[in-house]
Write a structure and sequence with these properties.
single chain, about 180 residues, mainly alpha, about 70% helix, about 0% strand
């Protein structure tokens, strides 16, 4: 249960330490936060980015206990965050969507195209774009099963092998190797 007094506290130390606490707690015991689902959605609409990111992280942590209707309700919002062109917001959404995909794989046809749409999003810099791609590749490294046989996904991963960020290119090569091994 979210303590609304703490999460809306005027004292930033209280507010932000509590935000960290509920993200940790929800990862351990997601069912304890399910009754706050609608309020968590409200948190994602806050002007304060840290509270917004906290709400997104909470939604991801609740993935294992969300109903399909809950997931369907939040997917459009998470897609907007993912494709916002704002690196941190996008990465929080990517993480939440990844958790949803792991716990609700039957949403793959909805979520994988969102991931691939990152390919065409304009970030502030190329470096930001590549950091976001790297975050997606980190997820795909262990979860490549979601993109096996997807030509667009393979093209995206191949494109990432030429990233100027060494870590992104390395991750892309690892994912590509796994995809090719299953083909």
């Amino acid at each position: 249960m979210i303590d609304r007094e703490k999460i809306t506290s005027k004292n930033p130390k209280i507010k932000f330490s509590y935000a960290k606490q509920i993200v940790r707690d929800s990862a351990k015991n997601p069912a304890d936060f399910l009754d706050d689902f609608d309020y968590i959605i409200e948190l994602t609409q806050e002007k304060n980015n840290i509270i917004k990111w906290t709400g997104i992280d909470l939604l991801g942590n609740l993935a294992s206990v969300l109903t399909d209707d809950n997931v369907a309700k939040i997917l459009p919002m998470l897609k907007d965050f993912l494709l916002s062109g704002k690196l941190i917001l996008s990465n929080h959404a990517l993480s939440a969507l990844g958790q949803i995909l792991l716990h609700k794989p039957h949403f793959a046809d909805d979520i994988v195209p969102m991931f691939l749409a990152l390919r065409n999003i304009k970030f502030d810099t190329e470096d930001c774009r590549d950091i976001s791609r790297g975050k997606l590749l980190e997820f795909l490294k262990d979860n490549y099963r979601f993109i096996i046989g997807n030509k667009e996904a393979k093209a995206f991963v191949e494109e990432c092998t030429t990233s100027t960020r060494e870590n992104v290119a390395k991750l892309a090569k690892q994912v590509l190797k796994k995809i090719k091994a299953t083909a």
